[in-house]
Amino acid sequence: MLFSLIAVLFITATNPDSAVVSAVIPDSTILLKSGELKDSLPVYRLKGMVVTATRTPLAERSAPASVSVIEPDPLTPNLDAANRLSQTAGASLGGNGGIGSVLSLSIRGAATNQVLYLLDGLPVNSAQNGSYDLNRILSQAQRIEIVRGPASSLYGANAVAGVVNIITKDSKQLKPYSRINFEKGGYSSQVWEATVSRPLAKWASASMGATWKKTGGQRVNSDYDGTNYFLELFAQPYSRIETKLRYQEYKSQNGVPGSVDYPSPTKRQKDWGKDFSFKASYDQNSFVALSRNSIENMIYSTVDSRNYTLQTNVEGQYQHSWMPQINTTVGVGYQMVESDITDVGQPELKHKAAFLIQQVEPLKDLLFVGSARYDKDFAYQRQISPSLSINYGFFEYLNFYTSYGQSFRAPTLNDLYWYSVDNYYGTNFVYSGNDSLLPEKNAQFEIGLKLGTIRTNGTLCFYRSKTTNLIDWGQQTFLMPDTLFTKAANIGKTITQGVELQASHTLFDMVTLDLNYTYCLAVQDTIGRPGLPFKPQHIANGSVTINDIQIVPDLKLGWKFWSQYSDIQKAGNWDPVDNLPAYIISNHVLSLKIADARVYYKVENLFNANYQTRYGYPMPRRTQSFGVTLELWD
User: Where would I find the TonB-dependent receptor plug domain in this sequence (predicted)?
Assistant: First the structure.
């Protein structure tokens, strides 16, 4: 079935001839007003531009925040999004294994559910546990923007440590495009991927694609079989109006091997995810949008369980330029969550929000951004999240920025309504949520410098944050001699401070050097200030890329080597060890581009490191894979 689908997708690309139109806007552009963009040019394709930091297009160097942008790398077409995210400054990846396993991303020492994930600007975090399955990120994404620091004043709940905005490809194509990729590697893994885009008319186009991944896994019962496919329709009926309709579906089934100490050789899991969205934009920066995101997983063991949530989001945004130096953005949002969860029940949540963003440029190269958001939820107290940030260009290539913001994480369905009773060796363990929980509150200050030249880019920043009302499941009381009762409560406090350094340099348009270093001290705000589990203090990433070098006509050579160092990290409170050891992971890929085709050889964990990011869950050892990619533009 899958091979038939790929064949259909590939053959669908016909050959109407049309020119490819591109536009280049210099990185020095500070702010884009309504109507300044060409009608056919999507804002997130602009070189050096970001949209997540202020909800409107802004030059990356002029954004008053620490930002990283991940774009498709032709040398590593099937490197999953989780690995790409872990190579950015401030990020730490926790995993339970290889392809298809649970992967969680921490930013700036925060909990994984304190990171907000957006799909084309709309939230997709699970209402059940606040997380997001990184396996659902399609490799066909146009780019991923990571904004570090509090962003609840822009996006609301869960944007405590940062925002990860997955921006899908604009389906408007002026010329047909087709891409197919196949990769085969260790642990009997295979990846098939196909994408087709084509114009339907001068004002409309369509894209569709599918990805299939399968692996036998490096441990007993760690196999995975997953598919991910999408369909997009784009229309521009008038010069200043654009509409986009998108549907994405994810399905997988996999083993749940458990930890080394407590294996589960027969436990299985199935996952389904569906994302539907519609967006109508006017002059790029004003829009109305609707999305529906469903998440369901079934776990099969001695006792079966079901976890299902359906989240509906409606958002509207309007931007107005009062004069060239003053822009105002206002918006409203509504969210409804429906659920059917074992041990939780079928609760519903409803949420309303309104926000205001004011951008002022009183002097050339001096930008003030103030924003505030009001969130009202039926399950917890209303929240007001303010922020203020400044960016100033000292010289042509050097910018200074500083910011202060407040943010919050909302209690999840599990936090509010969970109730279960388990019996182990004659003792009853009762776990209960708490419908009186308050949101976790955070305040953060940041200051930094940004350097941007033709060949060199860099960022250096310092931040300090404090979080209160942390939701903790460690409050335990014996009700009776044979019963232990655990209830969620707001009892935790943390302090986090750190330094982040990012640098990139290109030599002779052939070699690119990238480096980032993160120092992050995350501690509990209690006596002795103990460190938080799974939060390494030092992380460094580096890469060397030899861009496609012409060898002979129609033959180019490329090579990339990248490596990561992660410091010792404290293990979990119930783990039998105090710390997980430091590790270094290195990888490389060798690529040959032959006309429209590319063949590559990739080795991950090149030096066969034996390491864990969560106790009892060894990560894959050295794996080798071969792949081929074919791209056609007509």
Answer: 61-163
Phi first, then psi, for residue 318 (nearest 5°) are: -135, 130
Of 529, 533, 562, nearest to 545 by C-alpha is 562
Residue with tokens 């992050």: 520
Q: What's the rounded Cα separation, in Å, for the pair 447 and 463? A: 7
Beta-sheet pairing, 456-480 with 483-507: antiparallel
497: left (phi over 0), alpha (psi -120 to 50) or beta: beta
Q: Residue for token digits 């998108």?
A: 246
Maximum Cα–Cα distance for the chain, whole Å? Answer: 80
What confidence score (pLDDT) does residue 135 get?
83
Structure tokens at 235: 């229309």
- In the structure encoding, which two tokens stand for residue 288, read together? 């109305």
Instruction: Write down how long the chain is.
Output: 634
Sort residue 529 into left (φ over 0), alpha (ψ -120 to 50) or beta. Answer: left
284-297 pLDDT per residue, tens: 889 999 999 999 99
536 three-class SS: coil
What string of DSSP letters covers 19-76? PPP-----TT--BPPTT-S-TT--GGGSTTEESTTTSS-EEGGGSSSEEEEE---TTS
Amino acid (one-letter) located at 457: N
pTM for the structure as a whole:
0.90
Beta bridge partners of 269: 254, 299
Torsions phi, psi for 128 (to 5 deg): -75, -45
* pLDDT tens digits, one per residue of 481-493: 788 888 999 988 9
User: H helices within 556-607, ranges in order?
Assistant: none
Confidence class of residue 19 from pLDDT cuts 50, 70 and 90? Answer: very low
Q: Which residue has the tokens 């790029």?
A: 284
How, if at all, do strands 177-185 and 583-594 pair?
unpaired
Domain boundaries, the chain: 2-632
Q: Sort strands 224-238 and 241-255 into parallel, antiparallel or unpaired.
A: antiparallel
Strands 115-119 and 162-167: parallel
End-to-end CA distance of the chain: 26
The dotted CATH code for 2-632 is 2.40.170.20
For 224, the enclosing helix (H) or strand (E) is strand 224-238
User: How far is the C-alpha of 510 from the C-alpha of 520, rounded, in Å?
Assistant: 33
Please give the Cα distance from 429 to 610 (Å, whole number).
Answer: 35
CB 512 within 8 A of CB 506: yes
For the stretch 110-162, pLDDT in tens is: 999 999 999 999 999 999 999 998 888 877 788 899 999 999 999 999 999 99
DSSP 335-384: EEEEEEETTTB---EEEEEEEEEEEEEEETTEEEEEEEEEEEESSS--EE
Distance CA 57, CA 121 (A): 13
**Nearest by Cα to 246 from 166, 157, 340, 309:** 166
The per-type count for the chain, helices as H runs and strands as E runs, is: 4, 35
Q: How far apart are CA 487 and CA 434, in angstroms?
A: 7
SS3 annotation, 236-278: EEECCEEEEEEEEEEEEEEECCECCCCECCCCEEEEEEEEEEE
The first and second tokens of residue 251, run together, are 């399905």
Q: How far is CA 471 from its chain centroid?
A: 23
- Closest C-alpha among 488, 442, 484, 448 to residue 466: 442
